[in-house]
Amino acid sequence: MNWKAILRHETILAILVVLALVVLAAQSDRFFTPENLLNQGRLMTEVGLVAIIMTFVIATGGIDLSVGSILGLVAILIGVFWQNLGLPLEAAIGLGLVVGTLAGLFNGFIITRFGVPPLIATLATLALYRGLAEGISEARSVRGYPDWFYVLGQGQVLGVPTQLWILGLVAILAAIVLGLTSWGRATYAIGSNETAARFSGIRVDRVKMAIYAASGFAASLAAVIFVSRVSTTRSDMGTGLELDAITAVVLGGTSIFGGRGTIIGTVLGLIMVQALKNGLSLAGVRGDGTIVLIGAVLILTILISNLFHRDGNR
Amino acid sequence: QQVYTGGDDLPTNPLACDGTPGTATPMDYDGGTPTNAPDRAGQTLTVVDVPKLVGIGYFAATTQGIMEAAAELNMNATTDGPTRANIDDQITLIDNYITSGVDGILFAANDPVAIAPVLRRALEAGINVVGYDANSEPDARQWFVNQAEFNGIGKAMIDQLAAEIGEDGAFAIVTSTFTTPNQARWISEMAAYQAECYPNMRWLETVEAQEDNILSFNQANTLINKYGDELDGIAGMTSVATPAAADAVTQAGQCGNIAVVGLATPNAMRPYIEADCVKSAVLWNPIDLGYAAAYVLRAAADGTLNPGDTSVEAGRLGELQVINGSEVLLGAPFVFTADNIADFDF
Amino acid sequence: MTAEAQTLGRREQSWFGRLFAGYGQEIIILGAILLLFVVVWSINPRFISPNNLNTIFSGNAYIAVAAIGMSMVIITGNIDVSVGALIGVLATIAGTIAVSGYPVWVAWTAPILIGIAVNFLVGVLVAYARIPSIVVTLGMLSILRGGLISVTGGAWISNLPPEFLLAQQRPLGIPAPIYFMVGLTILAAFWMRYSAFGRSIYAVGGNPEAARAAGIPIERRIVQVFMIHGAFAGLATILFATQLQVIQSTVPPNLELTVITASVIGGVSILGGSGTVIGSTLAAILFAAIGSALIFVGISAYWLRAVIGLLILATVLADMARRRQAK
Amino acid sequence: MGGCRARFGALPGERRARSPTRQACLHDEEQGVTPGGRDAASPLIRLKGVSKAFAGIRVVKDVDFDVRPGEVHALMGENGAGKSTLIKIIAGVHPHDGGTIEIGGEPVSHLTPREARRRGVAVVYQELLLFPELTVAENVFLGHAPRTGWRGLDWPEMRRRTRALLDSLDSPDLDVDTKVGALSVANRQRVEIAKALSQDARVLIMDEPTAALAEADVVRLMAVVKRLRERGVGIIYVSHRLPEIFELADRVTVLRDGALIGTRPIGEVTAQSLVAMMVGREIDHLYPKSEIAPGETLLEVRNLSHGRKVRDISFALRRGEILGVAGLVGSGRTELALTLFGITPASSGEILVSGKPVRIGSPRDARAHGIAYVPEDRGLQGLVKPMTIAQNVSMASLERVRRGIMMRFAEETRRAAAAIKAIGIRARGPGQVVGQLSGGNQQKVVLAKWLETAPQILIMDEPTRGIDVGAKAEIHQLMTKLAGEGMGIIMISSELPEVLGMSDRVLVINNGQLVRTLERGEATAESVGAAMADARREEAA
Ligand SMILES: Nc1ncnc2c1ncn2[C@@H]1O[C@H](COP(=O)(O)OP(=O)(O)OP(=O)(O)O)[C@@H](O)[C@H]1O
Ligand SMILES: Nc1ncnc2c1ncn2[C@@H]1O[C@H](COP(=O)(O)OP(=O)(O)OP(=O)(O)O)[C@@H](O)[C@H]1O
Ligand SMILES: [Mg+2]
Ligand SMILES: [Mg+2]
């Protein structure tokens, strides 16, 4: 094992995360308590779900800016299906997940079928899906869901917030798929050289469509959890989510040019951001100061990582 | 074409046209209570103020009022809000402050329902919770300081418009977004009151302009261009939209032809009022609002304001009335005109 | 010329063909704008009244100016998602200077200089530290947005001296922002076509390795382009901050995405190496025209954003179809 | 100055009268030198003890090298010998680690591409360093465009001079306003050459300029090179094609594993001795073709069409046969391969594999029917360069190295190691990143990838482009072996000797159509060339 493998980005990030946790714990004795940490897990689930699938998207050299809008659209649709169409809530959720996945699939479709660069395609659907959410909802929010529904966003299972189980499950599945299966291999191959992947008989378009659909699904799942957590739907839900998710992914070492990235890295990136938000707040730093620090940490982490990889081929 | 007249389905309650105060039906206290709150009477309180967002003039003014009161009341207050009017960021922030163990939370909700669970958690943790400006579900906080009742704003706005454009004038509205609860309620009440009291007034259009001053300016301009002489007045529903609309009217050379009324702070409106392009602006004093909120929080923490009370003492503001069970009313909306605007600086 | 060449005959493009090949996307957008004007005009003739044209053309002038710099950055193969926050910071600085009694030209030049300085830092991190630009500017977005609020506490700036309000001037009855937008666009377009430096931007974005081999100092060029972008952000700030008599310390939400959208809809390839600033300016005008048209046509504002999204999608797909045809 | 032009025939692309004509007649004072002179002139470039290491691995070791005015100095060596690296050192692209470089007699310590250009060094890079989004004219003049009176770029002049340059390269059909991204590899190569010529350089370096060119273009290029030599330009010429070397070169320098083996006047070497210097051993025959008796029909194509480049083509491929496909660049050979392979599925016509009609709509379909394709553009279509050899080798046969959907990494590595051994890829191991390999070894990786799918039909597009003699012979041997094992091979090549040497039958494609099919016996340089040229006239008509 050579020193470069040891000093991969993820290792550096892990060291930084531990460092941050130690420093933050020293700042406030309320930080490193199981209760607080689990609660933070609850708060980061929506971004986390989206970021984990975004890792795949970015690893193929793409990007999905429409996730926040899909979240908003699905949230609205669940409300509308349930309240205005009178469907049972379970069916409304199911249908919402289907529509969200289709929204992601549509992204994949215009990207693969028409060759529109992902950034542009999803920039357009960012506006489109948000607009649909606003139009469909006519600015009305839907409230008063049955109690069982809140278990998802506000309840616990075995002392751990319900959604954290989901996040954990999705993270583990995603890590396996990306790291250990032939689908993961295809993802990396497409991100490194799409043409060569196509010439090797990899079904590039299909893989990409599946990944964008999965991204839509993740955003929809996040929508369900979000609605359950805040007990209401609004058409502006999830605004700006895409940038938070992308921050976590690139902080985790996924190359924005594609071909490189891991789920572990993304999870570490998520933990880093959430720990900073929470720990700094507990240490008495205000929200705007925290944002400044997160920005600086993002740049510095990648900078440090780059220093170690100076002559590697990153 | 469908004219937007407030987005929600909640019932409206227009005031009488001649101004006879509505008969307030007394209500039982419907707020929440902190569980096992320690005795905080006379203690130094650590309080956090979480407005809808930071970075806009309005909430800078409420903060100012809170700080003023905090100095009088032995409170350490900090303001910390999201940088975007975003329900999730606001919830996360409050959550962190619950963990850090504050004594009291002041909030202005981005969404009444979304914020409720976290506020309930605060109450459970024995924290005193008081809202201002934008309410949450009643049981998720103890008290809410209401700057002006929705129907009061609706009446003041429409009355001002009628006075300037006549009872058969035509007007349009520039608001932030249709999803903003306060604006939606105000617009609903305006529509109800106008239908009741000035049935001949014409409501042309409502446009969205977010909290974006250039967009507000453009939207107001477009309204002027679209309706030409037909347009007699523009109502601005936010402290961003109103001055922008006034600027649009000024730059279009339509001062005197198109009236601008709306919610706005006096500093922002001063140039237009002094130039006699705008006659009036409607608002409560946001500094007073913050000030009152801090006093209510102190009183709730000290146990001097309890469910069932009908008024509360608020420093330089004197006695404030309790309405609707668990709301403290700041007073009637205030109308700034050329005569009094020089007296205010916020 | 050899005899063979003459017998074979050339497949040279005509003057018009070259124009179309070089400016395809720009022509599509121009067509879209004209179509919109004709359709809305037929519904409500006031749409093309001089006043409304002024509103449309000046309404997004600051976005168009910011998009000029953004286009250059994108042409080098980079991106900047922090420009909105930067404009907010610069506006506050300009306003603070203006009300502190300095001469107005100081208040006007400061945002340009500070824009250059901030983006110099961004450029160095991108070019020399080799951090992808989206990462640097994502971080910068946080830093600027949070920093602005930390410093101002959200206070507004009012009582601006009247002479500061450049964007409210109307020489010859035309709003000043239109002069800025048109003038800067033409200047930038010329410069990018006819100067060696301007062309080298395309080279850097089109094929960095080849650009290096051609003797273009890539790192320095990227830093320079970011600095130019900063200067345009400063110019955009002046238009943004002097339009009204108060300056807010927030900027329109998602301003950076609007600026990027204007660039890419205007035909700047997100992959770098191609595009012009004429397209981005036309796109900014198109957005303003759509916003205005929706009011004139009376489309329920609930559906406004959906319509904009659809239009963007349509433009993008039309562009793709055109490119396909060209092949 | 007029004399200078008259005497050597002005090349187009020279600066206009308004701009200084310094460089056009730069070599006036050197005209005492006999063109092609060996000893007289002082070298334009001299390297002494130059070394270069990448990540600690030395790829150029202590090399002495020089170029004199008016000579063509050929640089030879196997793939990965360090030729391109040496060239990039001279061009300032790679900083060197040790030794000294003198240009025009002056030592230069810190050489950058800009500095090298300024000192009159122009380079045609092996990997075609062009700007796909810019036009031909702009690519040619990027960095030294003609200027107008007010220092702006003079576009009309730029286009005019590009036109003239392309005409001199006999490329009249190449439009100066097309984007380079839309051009074929061969046309890009022409643009790259025009670009180097436009610089009026004192030293012209050409790294495998003919790799992508067809025979006729090669002839034209050689004429241009000769003209430049007469004008006193010093030329460094890299090619794996021995005939070109013997026709052009005045001196030859051979590198092996980064070390200098020797520099010889061309008269003192033979093909055999050169090859021996390069590979360090003798190579018996270049085209190790064994006679075979073709078996049953593997592939039959009937009236296949796609677009304008594949028109109504019918042929059959038999087991054990190597079917050569000849044709001019742009005649549609690659398009035929892409259609057979499912990248651009056929719009009409029939494909029969082992007698059964099949539909090939994607590379996956092709693979399912035992068809493999080694593409012409290795870097773009063949390899995922940042990935390892093992990952590349398994890329087309992932189902062999997985259980369910889970990858079996150990199995993958094992298979790759086996392939490295079987095909003779020179690499550190299956874990080495493919981008670090030399061209020939990269090509072998692509081949290994497709052999993993156990194909029956192997389509090879320019299988030995840019590959050294040693590796070339190895690949040819491999082809013979595979054919011997019963595979049917379709070999597309622009190198006529290769087509003639390796094929059992030769198809000649012209303008998207199959114009002739020649048996091994009747296929000669003349007959095939005539069929190709015939095509040309038809096209022109
Ligand atoms: N940028 C690089 N980083 C690491 N190794 C490199 C790099 N460029 C070249 N090499 C290595 O240097 C050696 C020499 O490569 P070079 O390209 O000079 O060979 P070449 O003689 O031009 O071969 P070919 O005939 O295939 O073009 C090879 O082993 C190659 O793997
Ligand atoms: N045609 C071109 N296309 C792209 N880039 C060019 C072109 N010509 C020059 N450049 C690059 O543009 C930069 C600025 O061009 P400028 O006109 O200043 O070059 P110059 O005439 O060589 O002047 P100087 O040597 O003083 O820099 C140079 O760094 C050069 O590398
Ligand atoms: Mg080479
Ligand atoms: Mg070919």
TrEMBL record, chain A:
Principal location class: membrane
Main function: Part of the ABC transporter complex LsrABCD involved in autoinducer 2 (AI-2) import. Probably responsible for the translocation of the substrate across the membrane.
Membrane topology type: Multi-pass membrane protein
Presence of the UniProt keyword DNA-binding in the record: no
Protein name: Autoinducer 2 import system permease protein LsrD
Regions crossing the membrane: 49-82, 89-110, 164-183, 209-227, 248-271, 291-308
Assembly and binders: The complex is composed of two ATP-binding proteins (LsrA), two transmembrane proteins (LsrC and LsrD) and a solute-binding protein (LsrB).
Molecular functions per Gene Ontology: transmembrane transporter activity
Compartmental location: Cell membrane
Keyword vocabulary terms for this entry: Cell inner membrane, Cell membrane, Membrane, Transmembrane, Transmembrane helix, Transport
GO cellular component term of the entry, any: plasma membrane
Keyword Cell membrane: yes
Originating species: Arsenicitalea aurantiaca
One Pfam family matching this protein: BPD_transp_2
Automatic annotation (TrEMBL), chain C:
Keywords: Cell inner membrane, Cell membrane, Membrane, Transmembrane, Transmembrane helix, Transport
GO cellular component, one term: plasma membrane
Subcellular location: Cell membrane
Cell inner membrane among keywords: yes
Membrane topology: Multi-pass membrane protein
Primary localisation category: membrane
CDD domains: TM_PBP1_transp_AraH_like
MF term (GO), any: transmembrane transporter activity
TM ranges: 20-43, 55-76, 83-102, 108-128, 135-157, 172-192, 222-242, 254-271
The protein's assembly and partners: The complex is composed of two ATP-binding proteins (LsrA), two transmembrane proteins (LsrC and LsrD) and a solute-binding protein (LsrB).
Function: Part of the ABC transporter complex LsrABCD involved in autoinducer 2 (AI-2) import. Probably responsible for the translocation of the substrate across the membrane.
Identification of the protein by name: Autoinducer 2 import system permease protein LsrC
Species for this entry: Arsenicitalea aurantiaca
TrEMBL record, chain D:
Domain of life the protein comes from: Bacteria
Keyword Cytoplasm: no
Protein name per its UniProtKB record: Sugar ABC transporter ATP-binding protein
UniProt GO cellular component terms: plasma membrane
Domain ABC transporter: 45-282, 293-536
Family to which the UniProt record says this protein belongs: Belongs to the ABC transporter superfamily.
Pfam families: ABC_tran
Localisation: Cell membrane
GO MF entries: ATP binding; ATP hydrolysis activity
Lineage start: Bacteria, Pseudomonadati, Pseudomonadota, Alphaproteobacteria, Hyphomicrobiales
TM annotation in the entry: none
InterPro entries linked: AAA+_ATPase, ABC_carbohydrate_import_ATPase, ABC_transporter-like_ATP-bd, ABC_transporter-like_CS, P-loop_NTPase
UniProt cross-references to Gene3D superfamilies, sorted A to Z: P-loop containing nucleotide triphosphate hydrolases
CDD domains per the UniProt record, alphabetical: ABC_Carb_Monos_I, ABC_Carb_Monos_II
SUPFAM superfamilies attached to this UniProt entry: P-loop containing nucleoside triphosphate hydrolases (SSF52540)
Topology relative to the membrane: Peripheral membrane protein
Organism the protein comes from: Arsenicitalea aurantiaca
Region (Disordered): 1-23
Record keywords, A-Z: ATP-binding, Cell membrane, Membrane, Nucleotide-binding, Repeat, Sugar transport, Translocase, Transport
